[in-house]
Amino acid sequence: MPDSRTDNAAAAVPAPRRLVRPLDRGQVAGVAAGLGEHLGVSPLVPRAIFAVLAAWQFLGVAVYLVLWLVIPPASGPRTAPGVEAASRQGMRTASDEPRSRGWDLGQVMALGLVAAGGTWLLHVLGWGLEPQWLAAAALASLAAVLTWWQADRARGTQSEQADGWRSWTRTVAAHWTIVAAHVVAVLALVGSILLILVGMPTMGTLGSLLLGLGLFIAGLILLAAPWVLRARRALARVREEKLLSDARADMAAHLHDSVLQTLALIQRQAHDPREVGKLARRQERELREWLYGVAEEAETLRAGLLEAALEVEDTFPVQVETVTVGEDVDLTPALRELVRAAREAMVNAAKHSGEPTVDVYAEVSDDLVEVFVRDRGKGFDPDAVASDRMGVRGSILERMARHHGVARIRSSEERGTEVTLEMRR
Question: What pTM, to 2 d.p., does this model score?
């Protein structure tokens, strides 16, 4: 009997906390709130540290801005695939986006007074920045805050956020206040650069022009950095969701190809316990092999098609004639999906054509692999196949499309059905 104390202890281990910026609990960008939550302290502690460091050579502001770029914003909790699908179809209207709780004005004013008082004290003692450099740093920080704030709070789907400069253009043009904020940011950047140039030693007209141009380009890159990071993070999430979607689709197609087919056969053979046991054992073996990879798979196209044909003959009362012309190629992951699609076409022919023979013809050229699965039985209308029927649509057409192949189906009552599968080598 398992030790319940061990199970309870394992269940009590907390999940590792990831350092993120909770925008709904932040006064500016959520950096201090994220650090406080990650370290297990009040957000007021890192905020006070930033305020004190801001008085020393503007160090606190610089560190805050760097952490603003490095720490990603917190994303909403993951929901089940069914909930996500309902949200995309408009059946869930409640928004899961965090809502800002607004500033704690008293706390912001107190921290601002701490930073201002510390700056004044250090200036009196002769340890602080000169007013000119302090003003330049303040204007540059203001430009960064105005633009980075918009990047953090810009709305849109993952695909829209991954659209790069188009997403930025749509966000800026969404409201006049956003346009005004970007204009003020650019003016603040220009003012900061002018103060820097005035404080620099005389370098001549050309030298000052080149330095100013370089500082302006560097400033624009700095202002655009959060938008670039936002697009890259959104693109990574889109790719992750695409991989998960393809994995789910491949799993659904495999379950249809194997488990659901076997269940249908068990229903037909319910009167024969021996046959039901045989089908169940074979399905258990196939599912175990697919889950754990304990069985050796065919390594070439000819062997893969022959193995699929034997499986169909073992399951249905049909004969599958297999012919392969050309070079026998190794099975790449994409070609394995082609073989699985061909197997599903054989299964459909064995189940629905009413003919005792199914012909499979494969041809391999220098850059193309083609497989034809044909029967001379009763055909069907491919366009009339319901969208929820996975046999043709999910296991053949969509499977080939996901792996950069092409599938075509021709069927008529007079000539039967021919499935053509093509994939580049």
Answer: 0.45
Whats the size of the chain, residue-wise?
Answer: 425
Angle at 260 between CA 254 and CA 262, to 5 degrees: 105
pLDDT the model gives residue 108: 67
148-155 — which CB contacts under 8 Å span 24+ positions? 148/29, 148/68, 148/69, 148/223, 148/226, 149/28, 149/29, 149/181, 150/178, 150/181, 150/182, 151/226, 151/227, 151/230, 152/21, 152/23, 152/29, 152/30, 152/73, 152/226, 153/23, 154/230, 155/97
Q: What is the DSSP string of 324-360?
A: EEE---B--HHHHHHHHHHHHHHHHHHHHS--SEEEE
User: Residue 96 has what pLDDT?
Assistant: 45
Other Cβ atoms closer than 10 A to 48: 18
Burial bucket for residue 417 (CB in 10 Å: 0-12, 13-18, 19+): buried
Specify whether the CB–CB gap between 187 and 155 falls below 8 A: no
Q: Please report which helix (H) or strand (E) contains residue 37, including its range.
A: helix 31-39
Tell me the C-alpha distance between 370 and 379, whole Å: 22
pLDDT > 70 in the chain, percent: 70
User: Rounded to 5 degrees, what angle do the CA atoms 103, 105, 110 make?
Assistant: 125
Q: What is the separation of C-alpha 146 from the centre of its chain, rounded to a whole number of angstroms?
A: 28
Taking residues 110-119, report their average pLDDT: 68
pLDDT tens, 50-74? Answer: 777 777 777 777 788 888 877 877 7
Residues 6+ apart with CB under 8 A from 63: 50, 53
| Other Cβ atoms closer than 10 A to 179 | 12
Q: CA-based angle 88:391:80, to the nearest 5? A: 30
Helix (H) or strand (E) holding 320: strand 319-326
| CA-closest candidate to residue 31, choices 17, 15, 16, 50 | 50
**pLDDT band per the 50, 70, 90 thresholds, residue 23:** confident
**DSSP per-residue codes, 137-166:** HHHHHHHHHHHHHHHHH----HHHHTTTHH
**Torsion, CA 308, CA 311, CA 313, CA 317, rounded to 10:** -130
Please give the Cα distance from 14 to 16 (Å, whole number). 6
Is the distance from CB of 421 to CB of 400 less than 8 angstroms? yes
- The predicted structure's pLDDT at residue 163: 59
Three-state secondary structure call for residue 388:
coil
